[in-house]
Design goal:
mainly alpha, two-stranded antiparallel sheet, 15 helices, globular
């Protein structure tokens, strides 16, 4: 009943309706129908929605529980790697089977596995399929792992950190260290995940090789929309429950909540696990639209960007996190596309591709100084001011 009440809340219902209409309009103007929006731009929209879901996941632990995780993009990338293993394996298998149809004698199962291994791992000098890929042929196992593996990592890391009562900047440093360690491991060629080459060709969905990318991009856009709406509803339900009130108490005065008899570490661990799983699901839908996932996605700077997006949008406000991630992501795509002409000042040429990070940093400083409530807080202030003047 509480979940249904959350869905029927006017603000939440407006959120759901907005993104449904948004996806519907994008579909109508896609190459599949009217042709106003390119397939690549539809994919950008779908990826942006998943970055919004990742921002919600971070805001749940940071904005409501006070846990500044600077390693949340690790969970995001883990989801991408897990689904990427199945996509790459099955797609490679399809290609090899299709090619073998021309042979008089079909390949044995061992020959097929060897051919798949050579095709996938030949780039790192290997031909055998690592043990890590033992379930690569089973989609349902990978879908389960998208939830299980980041949940287990969050459980182990959170239990060790929270039981030691590591908080504040020290906890943030630990989350960064976790991300850096995982990134460095994945850069190794013998990691079983193709080293710095990563997993590529993820936009080619097994069984849909004959389907045009314009159709696949629309399917992923709607899948991303549904995932964002469900994630927002779950996060809102948690934030407005008794647990949400405890989270705010933990954020503001952890020792006081502990003195009242609550198991602070258990509550923090529970929220941390939920947040990690949400980020992983977002990554699992993001990277098939991006087409590739590699260790650079786990770079600590990516998690810092995510925190900046949440801060710019409005920390502690789930809609603000969505607004910040969507705004910064789309503006970033605009500035880094290379389509904006450089600004020649005579004595210096500003290349927007190179200066985008400077603009992002200045925006973060400006929001922190002049709009502590983020873009959402600033917009709400302007609306109330306009209503008073009207």
């Amino acid at each position: 009943m509480s979940v249904l009440k959350t869905i029927l809340d006017r603000k939440n219902l407006s959120f759901c309706i907005f993104f449904i209409i948004f996806s519907f309009i994008a579909t109508i103007f896609s190459e599949l129908f009217l042709g106003g929006l390119s397939t690549s731009f539809i994919k950008i929209l779908g990826k942006t929605l998943m970055l919004c879901l990742a921002a919600i996941a971070l805001d749940l632990v940071w904005g409501y529980c006070g846990i500044l995780s600077l390693g949340h993009f690790a969970f995001f990338a883990i989801g991408g790697y897990i689904i990427g293993m199945w996509l790459m394996y099955e797609r490679t298998k399809e290609i090899i089977i299709q090619a073998s149809l021309e042979q008089i004698i079909p390949p044995t199962s061992e020959e097929l596995k060897e051919a798949i291994g050579s095709q996938i791992f030949g780039v790192v000098g290997g031909s055998e399929i690592p043990f890590l890929w033992v379930f690569a042929d089973y989609l349902w196992v990978h879908l389960f792992f998208i939830v299980l593996i980041p949940g287990l990592i969050a459980l182990v890391f959170g239990w060790l950190a929270f039981r030691s009562r590591v908080t504040g900047v020290y906890l943030s440093i630990l989350t960064q260290a976790m991300t850096l360690a995982l990134s460095l491991y994945l850069f190794q060629n013998d990691s079983g995940l193709r080293g710095n080459n990563g997993l590529s060709g993820l936009q080619n969905i097994p069984g849909l090789s004959e389907v045009d990318q314009s159709i696949i991009s629309i399917l992923f856009l709607w899948a991303s929309t549904v995932a964002l709406i469900l994630g927002f509803i779950i996060a809102t339900s948690v934030a407005r429950s008794k647990l949400g009130n405890l989270m705010l108490g933990i954020r503001d005065d952890e020792n006081r909540i502990r003195f009242l008899g609550y198991n602070v570490e258990a509550y923090k661990l529970f929220v941390f696990i939920i947040s990690a799983v949400m980020a992983s699901i977002a990554g699992a839908l993001y990277y098939p639209q991006a087409g590739i996932v590699n260790p650079t996605e786990l770079a600590p700077i990516a998690s810092i960007y995510l925190a900046v997006w949440v801060s710019i949008g409005g920390r502690g406000k789930l809609i603000g996190a969505v607004l910040g991630a969507a705004f910064v992501s789309l503006v970033s795509s605009f500035f880094t596309s290379g389509k904006i002409p450089n600004l020649d000042l005579g004595f210096f040429v500003i290349s927007w591709v190179d200066w985008w990070l400077v603009i992002l940093g200045l925006s973060f400083v400006a929001v922190t100084l002049f709009a502590p409530g983020g873009l959402l807080g600033a917009l709400w202030f302007l609306v109330r001011k306009g209503m008073r003047n009207g």
